[in-house]
Amino acid sequence: MGKNRTTEAVLPKKNLKANGWNYHPDLPLANPSIFVWPPNPNFLLNWVVTNWLSLSERVLLVIISILLWKFCYPNFNSAQTFSFGWIAQTYSVNFLTVLTVAGSLHWYFYIYNGQKLRLKFDPRGMGKNNKLWDFSNQVHDNIFWSLGSGVSQLTAFMVITMWLMANEISPTITASSNPIWFVLSLMILPIYSAFHFYWIHRLLHLPVLYKKFHYLHHRNVSVGPWSGFSMHPVEHFLYISSLCIHWFVPSDPILVIFHVLWLGPGAAMTHTGYENLLIKDKRRLALGTFYHQLHHRYYECNYGNQEMPWDRWFGTFHDGSNESTVQTRNRKGKLHI
After folding, report:
1. How far apart are CA 269 and CA 101, in angstroms?
2. Structural domain boundaries in the chain
3. How is 157-175 classified by DSSP, letter by letter?
């Protein structure tokens, strides 16, 4: 969210091995949130252009959403009664989409080693031969939880949403009949998801919930594409409950599919461990953020993302400096006494 998408060449001097990092952006981290006062029209315009008028993660997911809606998912109108056929089809599409996105990113970055360590935050790779993870293997552990609990619950929430819309219990629109609301909804959904994620994430960091549930996701300190959707089933339920917004707010099937992709395959994209996808040494697609990478290393900071101001407002922001690390460790010590 709120990533800095740019096409400038990667400069070797950016590979700063400070505090154990292989790479990090300029520190301290700047504030790229659109929620600043007074508003900056130039910044807002640039935010719209980089996120919605160029090839970004969001635009890519919209394109995939439309293609899946047209050719893969069952017609939402066929979901008026629960039946094995359309539910199995929905599950299969979700399973294959998560498998394809996370699997392709893992193959490129960690098997083919297509980018080596360029723009990789943590120099470490994926863990093996360690009983910390199920199957003693980080990737196998992450795949198990992502494709097991993750895809199952993502499908369950989507199936309920489809049934509610098909039976006109939830309000529906179409992109053709309500183009302005459709476009606004596309732009608002990632922001709403960030709002939902921050508060769910803060809840999961309460010691009693962290030790029972959220610890599973945080076993991934050095993250990879399969890490993003690897969670305890209770965390999956809370995280994916973001989809419930479509039960009450007028939605088009494409909006639901986009939201599903944002929560599932999108998590794989933001947890690659790399800041950008490089093509011919040019940054072509923003992926992970150092903002969230700091959370995976220091835990009690950066619960949200860069686009929402909550961490800055509530004193849980880590800007990458040594001073922030000290403050975060002190806060962690008080929470986990």
Report:
1. 8
2. 57-288
3. HHHHHHHHHHTTSS-B--T
